[in-house]
Amino acid sequence: MSLIDPPTKRVDIVPAKRRAIILEHLRANGAASIQELADAIGGSQSTARRDLEHLVEKGYLERTHGGAVLVQPTRATFEAEPLVNAELRHAEKVAIGREAAKRLSPGDSIILDGSTTVMEAARAAAERNIPLTIVTNSLDIAQLCASVSSWRVIIPGGSVRPGFMNLAGNPGEEFIKSIHADLCLCGASAVSGTLLTDSSLEVASMKRAMISAARKSILLVDSSKFTAPGFCTLCDVSDLHEVITDSAIFAEALTALRSTERKITVVPMAIDG
């Protein structure tokens, strides 16, 4: 028997990662056959079909004869699955998060919402290991932050929606309204012109409270979030102090942001060959 183990096939990765690979492949190529998607995930056609069926059911894709095509979600209440969303535009989210972590100073009190890009900011801040007070409605972010010995972590309370690890509603929202933090890092489901929206009323209400409770608020959004508005208004870019995004942002979207005269930071990304 060979002493060298055969390479692990990519089909062994978790379903959320496979589905993110499929979505990114379709974003880059517009459409793809079953075989092309199977090759992309390193698995079989049957695995690719199961992942496609899941993504079609959730509203990401439309099936075509022998393949699939990426579509702009038509429902204003569309919410990306958290595990899949965390894998999409991952390099961009890491870069944006690292840039955001540079804004933190020792002793700051920071409000972190539950967005996946804010999670990357928390990871980058943890590497700096400076003393901070963290207030977050995300159970995932709270677990990460609790591993940093120099951080005090406060979870405001509320209700957990099925399938999501973020708290919303009271008593958490009332608690957020009672504090005065140095900085809030938040995300948004969509940015349309200068309007920030979300697909959930409860989430939008909590984020508004977070933004109002901080002296400064920074929006962390990758370039894919500049799209049609979600179900409910969150706030306007002019209500924030800075927006951090990546260099794949469309020129029209960047022009709209700069019209608010807020600080706009564009993180450069390497261009794929």
Automatic annotation (TrEMBL):
Residues 15-70 form the HTH deoR-type domain. SUPFAM superfamilies: NagB/RpiA/CoA transferase-like (SSF100950), Winged helix' DNA-binding domain (SSF46785). GO terms for molecular function: DNA binding; DNA-binding transcription factor activity. Coiled coil: none annotated. Pfam families: DeoRC, HTH_DeoR. It comes from the Bacteria. PANTHER family: AGA OPERON TRANSCRIPTIONAL REPRESSOR-RELATED, HTH-TYPE TRANSCRIPTIONAL REGULATOR SRLR-RELATED. This is Transcriptional regulator of sugar metabolism. It comes from Rhizobium leguminosarum bv. trifolii WSM597.
